[in-house]
């Protein structure tokens, strides 16, 4: 006959087994139905029921408290881990970027960066969008004997220079890369090396020498599927929100050795430069209108055109210059994206051009001189090419261009000197119609802007190109 455990006994296992019924070793079964339970037995049952009810209620209360505590801890953790929670709700369009960049929560700080990334993560994410650019050109050099006044014909020599570029997008037929104008100017051939070391030829799409920017294009049909899967379009950031002291990363083809990574801080923003103090192509002027991001991240020859990134892995600047002085260390400069974006957009929409043969090149038919900074300051001349002479019967004369005007733009490209105009004309055929912007002398020594359409003539009509350097304009030219 089975018995229930007596909770009043002195058994040492009472606390451990109080909620379990203890069965005897005898035969199992229920009490005999015809035998009436004793009073003591009924009291035992009542006591057992009370204790079971008490334990059940305690378990329910304990479970409720535990569940509430778990929810509170989960809420506190979520509130203090914004990076993780925001990553879970990120838009699906950012999934590829999230898989490359590991973000960590930032505690405090008033900077604009929402996360602090490891430099290695930034490099891994950004390098597929950075390319190395090689510029090969043929230039005329004086021979050895001409240095001593014996005359002689100039000789041609092939030169090669290196730079960097940033993949910024593509259209239906081309992959587009932004770089510095001084990286690609005077190029006879341009080649682009991608992250997988595949090298392809590129063409100039548009240039803006005044701001030292250029866009080049690589035909999509020349890019293999393997290379296309290895490269990426850069993420563009807001350079206006960059603060002095924030960490930045520079990536580029330093010294032509291949892509390298340096890091530092934003030493200054909205910094102005003068041409005499920096190693730039053109890109800056004495008016102080062009501003740069200054950084102590190492910017070396070959870095030009590469990316300056914030700690979110976004491009905030295009590396352009370094201060060239033995007395100075750690002063590099980048064109801020806030200034470059609109210019890049315009250059991306230009027609991609190739150099034409010398016999087919177009000509304006002018002789001109560079407007010096002195003439610009003293006489109020606009920056550009001062037209000292218009050749009779030339395209310029037919378009109504007169001497004394200053040519400032050719087919939408800003012109700052005669050599730049000569280089640009190598991409235009005779017979093409282009818009030329001029500053024409007006009343009270002022200048008025005028745009004319010019149908280019043939550069071989007179046996040589008619765009020639004239002596620097004398003072009496402006009286």
UniProtKB/TrEMBL annotation:
Pfam families: PDZ_6, Trypsin_2
UniProt key word Protease: yes
Domain PDZ, chain residue ranges per copy: 350-442
SMART domains tied to this protein: PDZ
Bias (Polar residues): 1-17
Domain of life: Bacteria
GO biological process: proteolysis
SUPFAM superfamilies with a match to the protein in the record: PDZ domain-like, Trypsin-like serine proteases
GO molecular function: peptidase activity
Segments crossing the lipid bilayer: 48-70
InterPro entries the UniProt entry points to: Chloro_Bact_Ser_Proteases, PDZ, PDZ_6, PDZ_sf, Peptidase_S1_PA, Peptidase_S1_PA_chymotrypsin, Peptidase_S1C
Compositionally biased intervals (Basic residues): 37-47
Keywords of this entry: Hydrolase, Membrane, Protease, Transmembrane, Transmembrane helix
Chain intervals for the UniProt region annotation (Disordered): 1-47, 455-479
Family: Belongs to the peptidase S1C family.
Protein name, as recorded: Serine protease HtrA
Organism: Blautia hominis
